[in-house]
Amino acid sequence: MTYSYYPGCTLRNKAKDLDMYARACAEALGFTLEELEQWQCCGGVYPLGSDEIASKLPSVRALDAAKQKGQDLVAVCSACYHVLKRVNDDMANVEDIQTRANNYMQLETPYKGETKVLHFLEVLRDRVGFDELKKKVVSPLTGRKIGAYYGCLLLRPSDVMAFDDPEDPTILEDFIRALGATPVVYPYRNECCGGYISLKEKELATSMCDKITDSAAGFEAECLVTACPLCKYNLNKSGKLPVVYFTELLAEALGVKEGAL
Amino acid sequence: MNKQAELIKEISGVNPLKCMKCGKCSASCPSYNEMDIKPHQFVSYVQNEDIEALTASKSLYKCLSCFACVERCPRGVKPGKLIDAARQVVIRQRGQEYLSPDEVPELLDEETPQQLLMSAFRKYRR
Amino acid sequence: MQRLIDRAKALLESGEVARVLGWRKGENVWDVEPAFFASPEELSDFVYNGFCGANLSKYMIEASKLEGKTLVFLKPCDTYSFNQLTTEHRVDRETAYIVGVGCKGKLKIENIDAKGILDVQGAGYPDASEILTVKTLYGDKEVSYKDAMLERCHVCKGKEHMVYDELIGESVDTCDGDRFAEVAKIEAMSPEEKFAYFQSELSKCIRCNACRNVCPACSCRKCVFDSNKFDSAQKANTISFEEKMFHIIRAFHVAGRCTDCGECSRVCPQGIPLHLFNRKFIKDIDSLYGTWQAGAEVDARGPLTNFRTDDAEPSIVTKRG
Amino acid sequence: MQRIGVFVCHCGSNIAATVDVKKVVEMALKEQGVVHAEDYPYMCSEAGQSRIGEAIAQKGLTGIVVCSCSPRMHEATFRKAAERYGLNPYMVEIANIREHCSWIHKDMAEATEKATILMRAAVAKVHLNAPLQAGESMVTKRALVIGGGIAGIQTAIDIADAGYKVDIVEKTPSIGGRMSQLDKTFPTLDCSACILTPKMVEAAAHENITIHTYSEVEKVSGFVGNFTVDIRKKARMVDIDKCTGCGVCQEKCPSKKTPNEFNRGLNNRSAIYTPFAQAIPNVPVIDTTACIKFKTGKCGVCQKVCQAGAIDYTQQDEIITENYGAIVVATGFDTIKLDKYGEYAYGQSKDVITSLELERVMNAAGPTKGHLERLSDGKAPKEIVFIQCVGSRCSDDRGKPYCSKICCMYTAKHAMLIRDKYPDTNVTVFYIDVRTPGKNFDEFYRRAVEDYGVNYIKGQVGKVIPQADGSLLVQGVDLLDQKQILKKADMVVLATAIEPNPDVRKIATMLTASIDTNNFLTEAHPKLRPVESPTAGVFLSGVRQGPKDIPETVAQAGAAAVKVIGLLAKDKLKTNPCTAKSDELLCNGCSQCANVCPYGAISYETKLINDHGIREDRRVAVVNSALCQGCGACTVTCPSGAMDLQGFSNRQILAEVDAICR
Amino acid sequence: MSMNTEFRPTIVAFCCNWCSYAGADLAGSSRLAYPADVKIIRVPCSCRVNPMFILRAFEKGADGVILCGCHPGDCHYSTGNYYARRRMTLLFSMLDYLGVENGRTRVEWVSAAEGVKFSETMNSFVEKIRSLGPNVRLGDLRCKD
């Protein structure tokens, strides 16, 4: 199986490891991530305004490129996934945005949300299957107590993201279990880390992350796992628990960590 | 009819009349204590066309767009979209950007991901 | 043929039957007509040959009202019609003495004419795989039996009688075609082609009602098109839509009841392939509601007086394109 | 030739604002056969009706068209009016120019044109109308009540007291319903069992009442006055006549791990069980999915210990068929599933419970023997938070759009009872609105606040956060104080929305009764006929019709009983005259129509028919007009057009088609 | 009809009394607009609709015919709509076979609670018929003014 792959700008830079581990793991699991030839930054946040068209176009281009190749579009970064999926929903269901974006793009055939956007975790859950993943684990992470940190972008708004139960998600816990580790369920796992606010309001972001890490530590998590570079950055600021990308854990369990970077 | 109120409703796609004033948005908001105008009030400010106060509010820059209020609202009002639209109305005016490129370098550290910069520019600038 | 006459004579003489329903010689060899024979003497005009296509079942409706039993000769395909009429209480099985006659396929004079064989005086009745020798004013001519056969015999339902008291004569399987091929061909046309095709066929209709009169399923005491129940009574059509309406409604009324005996097409003086309407319904019924053969058994509940809760929605027509 | 009068109603401005009624009158007068046309502000008013009367008298009208609201609204009104003024009621037709025209169109010219066409269609139909006479059918003097909760019990007792036989069908092993699960009732705080149990006993002992517990309605056929119902009596595996209710079998049963439905799954029960101590009948049933004997073939303990020899593992489900004149649906409610409300941590913490679960916790016969304790560790809670409107008043697909109506009152009750019995325990209630309409209701709520110190906070809870130490952190808002609150709690109680029991669709379909988008049964009229369903002979009782508390339920149960009694008191019913009729001269006797008749109303006779001088015996269809409900299925099956439907005849419908397509 | 005026189709909607007619009433009382081109004929049940009615409508110049009844399983007469479903499926299939545009006929199940669905259905059906244009195949041209 070959997927179109949208890495995103942070994965080209500060979060290279998130990307490299993902590619190595995909190879180990027998599917291919084919990076889109020309992609532009998704913008990091989804433009909420109904009249914002231009800022949605980079996503539309990526979605249409995947459509041309007849492939599903995979993202690893929570933010890219979030933006792509929401823009895709607009293109499928919001007539005004669909018309205006297509008028601007002047494509041969208009893009109407045909591409399926998948997060790497969804590929693991829905295409590979966690049972199958479990079989491929060569060095299980036995004994490690890991707290899943979802944040907002993967889950909300749930009617569009349709990723998991927005209040009581399980995909990362199932993932952790498949790797042989013990998931730690704690109530703040879907609370916001502060997001972009950490640029100007550092204390506010840190206080939010403190709540999250305190809660996780209280339930005896030894580390947190996330899919988002910004979440990781913010959580690291509170400094109470180590934070790793889920792809890193995966690479470790699949025995491809060494040499991935 | 207040033009700015109409604009906010249009940009956000929110119908404030759907609100039943239960307060679940404010109960869910992680930035609640930082805000001068609270999430459940966004709706009434727009409804009462008190846009001047709303656009002057620091809440515009405290909302995380985390969508907890949107997710949990029992009436589908989407207060988070409303405040984002109010912010749009402000930053689209000349000279109203909340982040100037000049102040950026001192806000950065070694680990700052590109994503943070991109997001902040999107949220704070035209 | 002689065996049939002998048996009829015996039954008449013994008084077991009061009359015989069979086929009588016409003016020409091909215009054999259905007839009642009341005495052994009258049987001298009885014939049974390749031109005896007529399905006698429908005449049993009238025969059922008469005193005593009626001996009726039914070809295999005719017995489906008889069963269907029994199901609908139109004929009385008790007053019928059914002699199932063998069938080797029936002929269509137009097919012989089309081969350039004119002024036919007589014809043999060989097996379908053989050559048919035709006597004409200009001497004997030969034609392949298959080429001279009615369309319906190429898609024959089989040579088994569904109901009978006794069987006389051998049958030969004549089926060598796909019953729904013609329908499928039309279904594959564009709407414009379909419309043009049926427009050209139906514009030939002169509303002579031959199809209706011969059809064993069209056995209403009074047809809706002759009564005022639907304000539809008329003989002469004032607008062209009415032909279509007549044929659609006729096909609809017999849908699920039509045994596909093919009499409608056989008797149409204009040569309109009327069976294509009935077969369309049969094809749809088979594919949507399960294979169904009217008259295969008595008292079976037809597809239009039955349903399943998970039947296809009418939108399937649009969806399948 | 008919002499037709056309009456165009303004309906105040409802019609007249969009339809030029004068123009419709003018156009009506151009129609063939129309000898009178007029418009009037309210045709349905007494004055409007008398204008119809005057026109009948003065113009000798033989047919009437009223252009007005939907015939579903006032057809009966105008038919009665016509009858009063000497015209056969079935000579009236309605052109619906309100719901189907003025209310949905804005452009006056367009709406007027459409109204004119609808008027023409109705005129065309009336030309072909014929006077019809209603027939009669017999009434079976026995009622069926589906559901054995307080609604069903009360309805049954009231009907039985009037001298009619009633059967109650209850799907669980005992009657009693939800009310039997409640601890105390508001606003008087009587013990629920103390007031319910006597009613249950009364029903069981009543000579006119037959109770079928552990039974379900399987099939319903027939119509008002003459329903035939198949009831499945599920195999109890216990002989109801031999059992003495001693309870030894339940004690000795080795399979005790099945969640106890009666206690909302908060504890377990044995495989052979009676749901609760006061069950009626006090005869256990064997849950064959849990019973070791049924699962492995080995055990049989209950049979061995039963001195009465009542255990019978060979019992089979039994289907009984009964006839009824009326059916009352009283199938009650359940709380909604909370799986879409993860933010409240129900299912994540044992100490987050629903109010109905709290009823069981508070009840002396419940899983904690009436001690208020945390289900996680058995400790007494010191801080309890109640959250209101959980799943009620929701416009999304997580909950229900309606107010569940009973929650404000039972929460006040719970809060008050807890504060009364455990003064050291603090109670906080997060609410959106406190809704307490009802006699002594608001006083009750105020008492909870003023006399018992219950802390009511106007605001909602965003999230319940389970803590590592086992406590709960409730993150809410106080809207009046403008504060976000983080409150530590030991227990959280959710006022969960209620919904009709999920078997509603099945039962509604069997009864051909309509249900609304929330699965509540629809009333025949929301204001004027609130306990009748639109299907004649089917009545509504209890929460099945809409959320309501116990006194309202009992009142409605009584109202439903009155309607049933009114029906059963009649010996005969007038039947709808719009029934099928077969033209003997055209009938082929082919039996196709009988095949599709859902009521078995068509039979065949051999008759001597004189068909234009030809006299012969023919098999012809005969319609039993008492059984025929007028659906028309037969008419389309009939190829000759012999079968026709009175009031909706082929020619009438074709005339409408012609008028519309003209 | 001249070419430059907007095409206003004639549409006949047969509605069963118990569900769809009530659904249309609900659409009305909820003020859910749909084009005035739709004219409703009340029948007791969808099974009352004879194919003859539909053909007659087309004969007399209708551009589209829609039949609305209770949802399968919810028929007021228990089974009427099941028969209607088979009849209409076969009839529509036959019309399609004769080359009539299959968008001109439709069956839709609309309950008494589905005012919104009724209005949406009528809007979409009218739109479909408008896109198909006047019915020339089933109408008789000589009959028109």
Instruction: Characterize the overall form of chain E.
Output: globular
What is the quaternary state of this protein? heteropentamer
Q: Low-confidence stretches of chain E at least 5 residues in length (pLDDT < 50)?
A: 140-145
CATH topology of the largest domain in chain A: Rossmann fold
Short structural description:
Chain D is an alpha/beta fold and 662 residues long.
General description of the model:
The complex is a heteropentamer of chains A (261), B (126), C (321), D (662) and E (145). Chain A folds into two domains: 2-120, Up-down Bundle (Glutathione S-transferase Yfyf (Class Pi), Chain A, domain 2); 130-254, 3-Layer(aba) Sandwich (Rossmann fold), CATH 3.40.50.11810. Chain A has eleven helices and eight strands. Chain A has helices spanning 16-29, 57-69, 78-93, 95-105, 120-128, 130-136, 158-161, 171-178, 202-218, 229-238, 246-254; strands at residues 2-6, 32-35, 73-75, 117-119, 145-148, 182-184, 223-226, 243-245. The radius of gyration of chain A is 18 Å and the shape is globular. Chain A starts with a strand and ends in a 7-residue tail after the last helix. The model of chain A has no long low-confidence stretch (mean pLDDT 94). Chain D folds into five domains: 4-126, 3-Layer(aba) Sandwich (Rossmann fold); 142-234 and 317-332 and 501-568, FAD/NAD(P)-binding domain (3-Layer(bba) Sandwich); 248-305, no CATH class; 334-499, 3-Layer(bba) Sandwich (FAD/NAD(P)-binding domain); 580-645, Alpha-Beta Plaits (2-Layer Sandwich). Helix content of chain D is 28%, strand content 25%. In chain D, strand 21, helix 12 and strand 22 form a beta-alpha-beta unit. In chain D, helix 1 (21-28) runs parallel beside helix 5 (108-126) and helix 6 runs parallel beside helix 15 (550-568). The longest helix of chain D has 19 residues, at 108-126. The relative contact order of chain D is 0.10. Chain E is built from four helices and four strands, in the order βαβαβαβα. In chain E, helix 1 crosses helix 4 (115-132). Chain E starts with 10 loop residues before the first strand and ends in a 13-residue tail after the last helix. Mean pLDDT of chain E is 88; it is low at 140-145. The chains are: A alpha/beta (261), B mainly alpha (126), C alpha/beta (321), D alpha/beta (662), E alpha/beta (145).
